[in-house]
Amino acid sequence: MDTDHIRNFSIIAHIDHGKTTLSDRLLQRTGTVADRDIEEQHLDAMDLEKERGITIKAHPVTMYYNAKNGERYELNLIDTPGHVDFAYEVSRSLSACEGALLIIDAAQGVEAQTVANVHLAMKQNLHIIPVINKIDLPHADIPQAKQQLEEIIAIPADEAILASAKEGIGIEDILEAIVARIPPPAAPKSTALQALIFDSYFDTYKGVVILVRVFSGELRPGMQVKLPNSSKTAEIKEVGSFNPKPYTRDVLTVGETGYVTANIKTPREVKVGDTILDARNPAAILPGFQEVRPMVFSGIYPINTADYEGLKQAIAKLQLNDSAITFQTETSAALGFGFRCGFLGLLHMEIVQERLHREFAMDIIATYPSVVYRVRKTDGVESSVDNPAFLPDVTYIDQIFEPIVKAFVICPNDNIGDIMSLISEKRGTVKNTETLDSRRVMLTCRLPMNEIVIDFHDRIKSITRGYGSMDYEPDGDEPSDMVKLDMLVNGEVMDAFSCLVHRSKAEPRGRAIAAKLKEVIPRQQFQVAIQAAIGGKVVARESVSAMRKDVTAKCYGGDISRKRKLLEKQKEGKKRMKSIGSVNIPQEAFIEVLKS
Questions:
Q1: Contact indicator for 331, 344 with CB cutoff of 8 Å
Q2: Main-chain dihedrals φ then ψ at residue 438, nearest 5 degrees
Q3: Mean pLDDT value across residues 277-284
Q4: Is 376 exposed, middle or buried (0-12, 13-18, 19+ CB in 10 A)?
Q5: Taking a C-beta distance cutoff of 8 angstroms, is the pair 411, 459 a contact?
Q6: Is residue 41's pLDDT more than 80?
Q7: Is there a contact between 301 and 333 (Cβ–Cβ < 8 Å)?
Q8: What is the mean pLDDT of residues 283-293?
């Protein structure tokens, strides 16, 4: 189809604002999916996506629409994930489009991720069409949503389309607006091939399937192509599009989106954001490529050590579908052999663990999540540390730099005091407070990433009774007084519980872990000391009292010295036992502590 009749667009929204439901209605209205075949959340393929109501992987789909002006148009929708963890995938998907539908919930209004996604779209110079969704809800406040659209996002309210994706209201208006307002793909400056890779997945029969948007030239089977960032050259076997199932085509031309398969068997050779070039006549690389960098690291170990090989294969298979996971082998004295895995964020980590459990029936245990610290040693050499076990000795450390994030928190006016005290508790500072409307404010703050990886989002939700929302972006790193907190049981360091914490938080964290360990470690014949230590200094201690055997039970009368002699003998025995005895901590104890 000629480029004047092609429209590439994306749908951006906060979680649960009706993005996937709207895409279902568009598929129905354009006849891409028959009414009898349509199902709820049609583009969400995973059970997890349907259960949680979130989009985890981007799904492109090509629709054909007969507009009111009598022309037939090719509409390429690239459905994007909504969660902050997948922001890089969203930015790549947006760079493959000329426009975006911005969905705003009529009942909830503009949320934190709405603002963040609009900034991403504006950075790519996309034409934004605002859609106020869920207007059929009894508590929908359309005037309020329009006011927020103008005041927060600076888009004229009269451009907004009123719709209800669930009831099918306004779908025709949205399709007409896509045709009328979103510009067609720009004419290419040359005929040399340039195609942006915005996603990829692994197919058992075809190998790596690369999702692309063609900016210039064309893609045909039999072409020799080059991937510059992995220096891979391959021959194209098949090209096609999605409707939403894949179907083959003869050629992908300028402005079109679709998929490409080649003789590529390992996903590591395909990087999101890379450019596909003609191997014989390579053009310039499209700008904006970045390596996907993991933000959160955690150790994953099999509960049954015999499952180690199975877990290795399971993570490798997951990596085929999700190239953002990184993993390498590591060992722990307490947990045995396992893997150090890197994730985009906490939700990403949670989803990977859930998929390992469901899709591969793996019983796993994950260690305390940590972020990547930059360590400068006294000799000036710098290194990155994501595992407390690899932290150099304190005498060789000059400074530790911890990653900082810029967070946007939207909360009701009534909760602003509680949210500010939560931010200060997490060592953050509020930089800016902006009133959104009569009910809500947006706080812009800077926080250490280490503080938000565990319970920050949950705490915001509980403080605001579910009305708060949050989004964040990396904001460099800063020097910080970080220390390595070790847990010692009977004088032995338990590496599974070691973590890097700020000095001000070390003592409370040590007390909490020690108290939990006291509950789960079984009693021994001698007293067991549980200590939290920073270097050689113990900052918290709990003791598991010894089981006492009544050695005087056999004495019936006689002098007290007989009993005292037996008790002294028992005391000596316990002393000797403590010096040579070892405490075997059961696996369940580790699981209990790491779960908490």
A1: no
A2: -70, -15
A3: 82
A4: middle
A5: no
A6: no
A7: no
A8: 73
The CATH number of the domain holding residue 87 is 3.40.50.300
Angle between helices 112-123 and 87-95 (to 10 degrees): 40
Identify the pLDDT of residue 271: 78
Burial class (CB in 10 A: 0-12, 13-18, 19+), 389: middle
3-state secondary structure of 34: coil
Q: HEC string of 357-413?
A: HHHHCCCEEECCCEECEEEEECCCCEEEECCHHHCCCHHHEEEEEEEEEEEEEEEEH
Under a CB-based contact definition with an 8 Å cutoff, are residues 81 and 89 in contact?
yes
**Cα 580–Cα 581–Cα 586 angle in degrees, nearest 5:** 150
For residue 214, what are the CA distances in angstroms to 8, 95, 188, 220, 269? Answer: 11, 12, 10, 12, 19
CB atoms within 10 A of CB 64: 14
141 and 32 in a common domain: yes
| pLDDT tens by residue, 183-239 | 888 888 788 888 888 877 777 788 888 888 888 888 888 888 888 877 888 888 989
Last residue of a domain, one of 248, 278, 308: 278
For tokens 């009544």, name the residue: 550
CA distances from 548 to 94, 491, 527 (A): 68, 22, 10
Beta-carbon neighbour count of residue 332 at 10 Å?
17
Structure tokens at 68: 């009111």
| Residue where a domain stops, chosen among 250, 278, 306 | 278
Question: What's the domain range around 324?
Answer: 296-367
Same-domain check for residues 266 and 356: no
Find the distance separating the first CA and the last CA of the chain, reported in whole Å: 57
Chain centroid to CA 258: 25
Instruction: State how many domains the chain has.
Output: 5
- Of 326-335, 554-563, 586-595, where does mean pLDDT reach its minimum? 586-595
Is the domain of 7 the same as that of 137? yes
Q: Report pLDDT for 38.
A: 55
DSSP-assigned letters across all residues of 259-286: EEEES---GGG--TT-EEEESSS--PPP
* 100 and 248, same domain (yes or no): no
Q: Percent helix, strand, coil in the chain (nearest 5)?
A: 30, 35, 35
pTM for this entry: 0.69
The fraction of the chain above a pLDDT of 70, given in percent, is 86
Name the region of 227 (left: φ>0; alpha: ψ -120 to 50; beta: rest): beta
Q: Supply the CATH number for residue 442's domain.
A: 3.30.70.240
Contact yes or no for 412/464 (Cβ under 8 A)? yes
CB-count exposure of residue 124 (10 Å: 0-12, 13-18, 19+):
middle
Residue bearing tokens 């997951």? 318
Residue 159 DSSP label: G
Let me know if residue 285 belongs to a domain: no
On whether both 164 and 28 belong to a single domain, the answer is yes
Distance, in Å, from the CA atom of 210 to the CA atom of 208, rounded to the nearest integer, reads: 6
Distances (CA, A) of 153 to 406, 418, 496: 19, 26, 46
Q: How confident is the model at residue 34 (pLDDT cuts 50, 70, 90)?
A: low
In 3D, which of 169, 97, 102 has the Cα closest to residue 131? 102
**φ/ψ (deg, to 5) at 275:** -115, 135
